[in-house]
């Protein structure tokens, strides 16, 4: 596995005359949990969509597992999974059948024990034969996360994964992400609030589509002069109220 599951250089994206991303540089090493922070409209979702190949960037370079996304959008799907903030599901498949479908598409072997364990960890095992349309928003988000974790991608992208979850589920998700990173997966996720007593390996702060700050918790303490590094504190350091983020 390459040391850099994700390498972004000079990424720019425009929606008409609006510049959503402006010359963004970003690296996510293998085994690194990276948190993407920014107020609403900072470009977080656009960045994740471009990296996943869902949105074609206006300019710049994105390489996933050594492959250029612009030239190999289909090929990179073997290595990257994006869970959007509002996942979609097939109306005629149960939760378990969603996992079965994902396992078939990715040609996973002996996937059933792992799928059962993931559903159990998220409290969904007893609802495995139900349809996602009957789930609450939090349950649907857990199912989308379960599908992503089952695949074990080399790069895992998550858009606001903690927002729909209760405190216990958020803590369980953090433990799952930490375990995947410890196994060598690169993880990049946006968030407005982290579970208590958690600390990512790296931070990237977007402001107006540009990288305003990046680095470890220690790096940001020194560069931004903040004592506590949280998404809220980082937004305040940029002059934005915490409620915006």
Characterise the protein shown here.
- This protein is an alpha/beta fold.
- The chain folds into two domains: 6-79 and 153-244, Rossmann fold (3-Layer(aba) Sandwich); 90-148, no CATH class.
- It contains seven helices and ten strands.
- It is globular, with a radius of gyration of 18 Å.
Question: What are its keywords?
Answer:
245 residues; alpha/beta; Rossmann fold; six-stranded mixed beta sheet; 7 helices; 24% strand
Low-confidence blocks of residues: none
Describe the global form: globular
Sheet having the most strands: 6 strands, mixed
The main sheet orders its strands as 6-7-8-3-9-10
The number of distinct structural domains comes to 2
The overall pLDDT average reads: 91
Would you identify the CATH architecture of the largest domain? Answer: 3-Layer(aba) Sandwich
Cα-atom Rg, whole angstroms? 18 Å
CATH homolog superfamily of the largest domain: P-loop containing nucleotide triphosphate hydrolases
Total DSSP E strands: 10
């Amino acid at each position: 596995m390459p040391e850099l599951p994700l390498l972004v250089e000079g990424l720019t994206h425009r929606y008409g005359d609006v510049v959503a991303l402006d010359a963004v540089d970003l690296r996510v090493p293998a085994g690194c949990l990276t948190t993407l922070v920014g107020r609403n409209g900072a470009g977080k979702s656009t960045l994740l969509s471009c990296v996943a190949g869902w949105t074609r960037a206006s300019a710049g370079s994105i390489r996933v597992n050594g492959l250029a996304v612009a030239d190999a959008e289909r090929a990179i799907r073997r290595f990257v999974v994006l869970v959007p903030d509002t996942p979609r599901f097939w109306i005629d498949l149960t939760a378990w059948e969603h996992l079965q479908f994902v396992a078939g598409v990715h040609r996973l072997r002996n996937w059933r024990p792992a799928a059962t364990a993931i559903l159990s960890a998220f409290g969904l095992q007893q609802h495995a034969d139900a349809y996602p349309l009957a789930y609450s928003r939090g349950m649907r988000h857990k199912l989308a996360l379960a599908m992503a974790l089952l695949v074990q991608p080399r790069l895992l992208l998550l858009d606001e994964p903690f927002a729909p979850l209760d405190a216990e589920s958020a803590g369980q998700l953090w433990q799952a992400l930490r375990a995947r990173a410890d196994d060598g997966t690169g993880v990049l996720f946006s968030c407005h609030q982290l579970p208590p007593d958690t600390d990512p390996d790296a931070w990237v702060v977007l402001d107006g589509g540009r990288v305003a700050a990046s680095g470890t918790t220690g790096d940001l303490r020194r560069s931004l002069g903040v004592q506590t590094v949280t998404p809220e504190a980082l937004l305040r350091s940029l002059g934005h109220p915490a409620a915006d983020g």
